[in-house]
């Protein structure tokens, strides 16, 4: 994909707005009126006169592509007209922050029909509401400023807009995929740079700095999430975020990190040997996880049920752990009793987009089946969705020991063989995958072949 060429165009905000309004009209037949959204407001750090790190509200961005704080948008459902409202010039702030974006510049930059300043928002809303008999303003609860009024609208609907955007966001257009591909390209290079440096650092935090520095240098100033830089047994903690432990004497590093490109995320995990050579036990676990990932990706296409792919991953894990002797007994019984959850406790992946755990997954965290409880996506996958495929096998005492004490599970686990694997910690491999009608497109380019990783690490 030539993502740079695609990204020379404008973010397709008006097409997104039309898709959202079409969804609303399915739910509210003959709906008329406007969609109203606000960007995130500037907020000061508590007990401080500096601003908090700004992260644009994703619902607003989806309909505007505008990263400016303190902004608003109105989309007219009937005329398909988008009006963006941006902050006016504040002479007192120019000396500190420089001139803000002008209305003329905003109209050139973003896919909107008209740009006004935020001091015109209430007058515009009043005019639109008064000129549209029986018009409805659709907004998101708790995301409307106190200073904004909808007094001229006959109806106010706070129930459907958030749902409409969340459902619509699942299927990405070419521009959105290009944004995620760009984030992946930058983050993949940063992952490989960490591999090159891993033998020469003393502490996890040095590797976190290397990753973030490479992303910033390439233009991805924001991270999609807090990096997981887990050495040794810390890799068995799924969301380990301390990233401050010494690395001496440890076998592997699990790096789960991804930069963000213009509000669109990447989410990549690689696990590799710190000294450049997998131990026998580490390589055995890595090979199982790699097979889990490759076979699951090969099974994906439009209409596939994600729950079934998750099951496939567990069955491959069971076969691999049986072959190593960590598991013992009948594989069908092991699967039926959910004993493999002790080693693979999380879901296979999640939707990816403007959020790392993107919208529309229909998770059911109340599911009594432990194999599916943490599955963030349920049901069929549409073409155009982007999903992470991130199987893993972990050796976490806190999780596994209750299984060893439970007769239902303990008979399937060979504790003597298991003893050899605790120092492996955990292995996870994660790529970002576009679902197509006939298969997939993998946006993640960071190397994951174990021998290639060993060569890269050992050569530096």
UniProtKB/TrEMBL annotation:
Its EC number is 3.4.11.9. SUPFAM superfamilies: Creatinase/aminopeptidase, Creatinase/prolidase N-terminal domain. Its cofactor is Mn(2+). It is an enzyme of class 3 (hydrolase). Keywords: Aminopeptidase, Hydrolase, Manganese, Metal-binding, Metalloprotease, Protease. One of its GO terms (molecular function) is metalloaminopeptidase activity. Gene3D superfamilies: Creatinase/methionine aminopeptidase superfamily (3.90.230.10), Creatinase/prolidase N-terminal domain (3.40.350.10). It catalyses: Release of any N-terminal amino acid, including proline, that is linked to proline, even from a dipeptide or tripeptide. Pfam families: AMP_N (PF05195), Peptidase_M24 (PF00557). It comes from the Eukaryota. Residues 11-145 form the Aminopeptidase P N-terminal domain. InterPro entries: Aminopep_P_N, Creatin/AminoP/Spt16_N, Creatinase/aminopeptidase-like, Pept_M24, X-Pro_dipept-like. GO terms for biological process: proteolysis. Catalyzes the removal of a penultimate prolyl residue from the N-termini of peptides. Belongs to the peptidase M24B family. This is Xaa-Pro aminopeptidase. The lineage of its organism: Eukaryota, Fungi, Dikarya, Ascomycota, Pezizomycotina.
């Amino acid at each position: 994909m030539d993502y740079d060429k695609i990204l020379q165009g404008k973010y397709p905000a008006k097409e997104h707005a039309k898709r959202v309004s079409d969804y609303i009209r399915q739910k509210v037949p003959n709906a008329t009126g406007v969609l109203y959204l606000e960007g995130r407001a500037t907020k000061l750090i508590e007990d401080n006169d500096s601003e908090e790190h700004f992260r644009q509200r994703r619902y607003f961005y989806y309909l505007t592509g505008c990263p400016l704080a303190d902004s608003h948008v109105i989309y007219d459902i009937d005329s398909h007209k988008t009006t963006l409202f941006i902050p006016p010039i504040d002479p007192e702030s120019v000396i500190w922050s420089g001139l803000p974006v002008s209305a003329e510049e905003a109209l050139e930059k973003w896919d909107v029909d008209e740009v006004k300043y935020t001091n015109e928002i209430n007058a515009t809303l009043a005019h639109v509401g008064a000129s549209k008999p029986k018009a409805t303003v659709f907004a998101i609860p708790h995301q409307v400023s106190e200073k904004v009024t909808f007094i001229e609208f006959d109806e106010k609907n706070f129930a459907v807009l958030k749902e409409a955007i969340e459902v619509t966001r699942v299927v990405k257009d070419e521009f959105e995929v290009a944004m995620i591909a760009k984030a992946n390209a930058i983050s993949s290079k940063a992952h490989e740079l960490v591999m090159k440096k891993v033998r020469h650092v003393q502490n996890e935090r040095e590797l976190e700095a290397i990753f973030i520095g490479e992303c910033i240098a390439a233009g991805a100033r924001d991270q999609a999430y807090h990096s997981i830089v887990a050495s040794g047994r810390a890799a068995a903690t799924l969301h380990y975020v301390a990233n401050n432990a010494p690395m001496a004497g440890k076998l592997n590093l699990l790096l789960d990190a991804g930069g963000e490109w213009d509000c669109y995320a990447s989410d990549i995990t690689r696990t590799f040997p710190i000294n450049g050579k997998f131990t026998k036990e580490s390589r055995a676990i890595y090979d199982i996880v790699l097979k889990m990932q490759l076979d699951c990706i090969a099974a994906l296409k439009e209409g596939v049920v994600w729950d079934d792919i998750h099951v496939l991953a567990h069955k491959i894990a069971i076969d691999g752990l049986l072959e190593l002797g960590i598991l013992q007994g009948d594989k069908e019984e092991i699967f039926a009793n959910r004993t493999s959850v002790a080693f693979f406790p999380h879901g296979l992946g999640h939707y990816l987009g403007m959020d790392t755990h993107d919208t529309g997954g229909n998770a059911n965290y109340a599911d009594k089946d432990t194999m599916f409880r943490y599955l963030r996506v349920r049901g069929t996958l549409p073409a155009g969705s982007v999903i992470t495929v991130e199987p893993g096998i972990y050796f976490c005492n806190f999780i596994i020991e209750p299984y060893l004490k439970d007769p239902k599970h303990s008979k399937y686990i060979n504790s003597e063989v298991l003893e050899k694997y605790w120092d492996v910690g955990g292995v996870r491999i994660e790529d970002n995958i576009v679902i197509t009608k006939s298969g997939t497109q993998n946006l993640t380019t960071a190397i994951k072949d174990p021998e290639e990783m060993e060569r890269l690490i050992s050569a530096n």
